[in-house]
From TrEMBL:
EC number: 2.7.11.1
Region called Disordered, residue ranges: 156-196
Family assignment from sequence similarity: Belongs to the protein kinase superfamily. Alpha-type protein kinase family. ALPK subfamily.
Protein name per its UniProtKB record: Alpha-protein kinase 2
Membrane keyword on record: yes
Keyword set, alphabetical order: Cell membrane, Disulfide bond, Immunoglobulin domain, Kinase, Membrane, Repeat, Serine/threonine-protein kinase, Transferase
Compartment(s) where it occurs, according to its Swiss-Prot or TrEMBL record: Basolateral cell membrane
Domain Alpha-type protein kinase: 1-153
């Protein structure tokens, strides 16, 4: 949990460094740090500790990307969280996605990370690869994506789908492939009958 959240936090810092200087971008989401505490005298020897977030707790993106959340789509924090996801996706060439973004205002906690099956640069996330595929298919760019110069995923996703369908159309199917049987196999065989 600490490793995932603090890894996502590092991406958020780089995102902030790129986004904050842009005119009109404004405040950037921050993933708060989480710490692992060892308490050897306690029945549960390990615990996580993080800053308390006070206010309305909102899920800006869910792990599987299927939930439609108007607070995510219509709020500034929600749009900037979606842009952050898009930015990470693009920076890692579609290999990693920070997901399950939630928190109070621009302060986020308890995030998840999805990576390709083999991971990304030695890091394996805690969410299914299907979350990356769903994000690619469902993400709708907003003005913050445009401000950062991010490429539309719709166009990329549609091109990939067309390329895949064209490849499958160009591949011969089993009914068009001529089946040839070696001459030797077509000749009658001598069978030796044995009596039992």
């Amino acid at each position: 949990e600490c490793y995932v959240q603090n890894t996502a936090r590092e991406y958020a810092k780089i995102y902030a460094a790129e986004a904050e200087p842009l005119e009109g971008f404004g405040e950037v989401p921050e993933i708060i740090p989480i710490f692992l505490v060892h308490r050897p005298a306690n029945n549960i020897p390990y615990a996580t500790v993080e800053e308390e977030l006070v206010g309305e707790f909102v899920k800006y993106s869910v792990r599987d990307g299927k939930e439609v959340n108007f607070l995510r789509r219509d709020s500034e924090a929600g749009q900037k969280c979606c842009t952050f996801q898009h930015w990470v996706y693009e920076k890692t060439n579609g290999s990693l996605l920070v997901t399950d973004l939630q928190g109070v205002g621009m302060k986020l906690t308890d995030v998840g990370i999805a990576t390709l099956a083999k991971g990304y640069k030695g890091f394996k996330g805690n969410c299914s690869i299907s979350f990356i595929e769903q994000f690619r298919a469902l993400h709708q760019c907003n003005k913050y994506c445009e401000m950062l110069g991010l490429k539309s995923l719709r166009t990329t996703h549609e091109k990939q789908r067309k390329a895949t369908s064209m490849k499958s159309k160009n591949l011969p199917n089993s009914s068009t492939i001529k089946k040839t049987v070696p001459k030797k196999a077509r000749e009658p065989r001598d069978f030796i009958s044995s009596e039992h």
